[in-house]
UniProtKB/TrEMBL annotation:
Top-level taxon in the UniProt lineage: Bacteria
Keywords annotated in UniProt: Signal
Gene Ontology CC entries for this record: outer membrane-bounded periplasmic space
Record-given protein name: Sporulation stage II protein D amidase enhancer LytB N-terminal domain-containing protein
Lineage: Bacteria, Pseudomonadati, Elusimicrobiota, Elusimicrobia, Elusimicrobiales
Gene source species: Candidatus Avelusimicrobium gallicola
Length: 417
């Protein structure tokens, strides 16, 4: 197992080294997420990184690069820069710089051609902020390079950001920056591990992660909260492993008194000890611990139609649940028949807060639900982590509780951060 961990860490080192070598070819190789193992050498080969045009770039800390999809299929955008910015094509055949703060207009000209400021090209154009300059788009601030990638009559915006800077922009939008430092540290380790696990199996040629809940919420690393910076910097390079391998460190808002095995949410996932469920006695302080909601009947009926069941809603029943009381399957009965569906899909479709349902009743105009928790209930309970931190527990004890059997490893030395 130690040899396998060393191989995985060398894989991460390769990502970092190739990010710094210019020009170079970067490869993201990895494992199928469900198997949690076996490096896949046939994974994506990334395009070469262009040489930095900022003479001060060497002052930036060494780090892995994460490519974040900020927006897709845009036709225009206004990107502000707070200081000097370099604008150039990937092969550097076209380039210029602007020293004073200002706003750059980005336009799709059609047929794969774009314009950024005064530069036009039928290829990717890069905006590189100088050291201490921020790029501002959609009210969010970014310190990494933004790649404007032509896509027919539109373009995509992708930021290339250092891993640790990326985490500065994830934490305050996944957990309140006002929470105790130890809870934020636990979140930093979980978010870092989740990101690096994702990088093992990248399939898109242009980006690694989304900037929303499809990956982790991210609103730019330009705005940095002191508490978040302390949490990220204080755990720099730390990740969670199980049997010397990274795993997907899922987390959610509130577990309602206990988390569950990953298979209760994703039946196709491999069950491992850190994702087998954990006790939680520190989340009851939250407003999310108990809830009740009234969902219009029409919303449930529309979902039923999408899964092939027409007719008027007659009843809803929990077909199966876990030992903690979380429903895994819901049976929908209408005037035309019945169908059993995964509760996770049902939850997202109709908008209930969790599948830990304690009461439900079909009424004349709506369906009344009562329950506990908020989210899928797998991995770390964020409200529980907050409670444990307030009770004096450090981040290592928090992580040990919610990911039982896992180990904290520091991989900084392997990729030079």
């Amino acid at each position: 197992m130690k040899h396998l961990l060393r191989f995985q860490l060398l894989f991460l080192a390769t990502l970092f080294i190739s990010a710094c070598a210019v020009p170079s070819q970067r490869a993201a190789v990895g494992a199928q997420a469900a198997k949690e193992s076996q490096i896949n050498s046939s994974a994506l080969t990334r395009a070469p990184e262009p040489k930095s045009q900022d003479p001060q770039a060497k002052r930036r800390p060494k780090d892995l690069t994460v490519r974040i999809l900020l927006a897709e299929k845009q036709k225009s955008a206004l990107i502000k820069h707070t200081g000097k910015v370099y604008i150039y094509t990937l092969n550097l055949d076209k380039k210029y710089k602007i020293s004073a703060p200002g706003t750059l207009s980005v336009k799709a000209l059609g047929s794969g051609k774009i314009q950024v400021g005064t530069l036009q090209a039928n290829k990717t154009i890069v905006l590189e902020p100088a050291l201490n300059t921020l790029l501002v788009w959609n009210k969010n601030s970014y310190s990494g390079k933004i790649f404007i990638i032509p896509a027919g009559n539109t373009f995509h915006l992708v930021e290339h950001a250092p891993l640790e800077t990326y985490l500065y922009g994830v934490l305050p939008y996944e957990m309140s920056h006002s929470w105790p430092l130890e809870a934020l540290k636990a979140q930093a380790v979980a978010a870092r591990t989740y990101t690096l696990k994702t990088l093992e199996n990248v399939k898109n040629q242009n980006f690694d992660v989304f900037s929303d809940v499809r990956s982790q919420m991210y609103k730019g690393g330009g705005k940095q909260y002191d508490s978040v910076k302390k949490a990220v910097d204080g755990t720099r390079g730390e990740v969670l492993t199980y049997q010397d391998k990274l795993f997907f460190t899922y987390y959610h808002a509130n577990c309602g008194g206990g988390t569950d095995d990953v298979r209760s949410w994703n039946p196709g996932a491999a069950s491992i000890k850190p994702l087998s469920g954990a006790s939680c006695k520190t989340d009851s302080h939250s407003k999310s611990y108990k809830w009740q909601m009234n969902i219009p009947r029409s919303k449930v009926e529309n979902y039923a139609k999408r899964v092939g069941l027409s007719g008027t809603l007659k009843s809803l029943k929990i077909a199966r649940k876990t030992d903690t009381g979380r429903a895994t399957n819901i049976t929908i009965r209408t005037s035309k028949g019945s169908k059993t569906v995964p509760c996770g899909n049902f939850r997202l479709a109709v908008g209930i807060r969790s599948c830990k349902i304690t009461k439900l009743s079909v009424r004349k105009n709506d369906v009344h639900f009562e329950g506990k928790g908020y989210g899928h209930g797998i991995g770390m309970c964020q409200d529980g982590a907050n409670g444990m931190a307030k009770d004096g527990k450090n981040y290592k004890k928090i992580l040990k509780n919610y990911y039982p059997g896992s180990e904290i490893k520091n991989i900084s030395n392997y990729y030079g951060i």
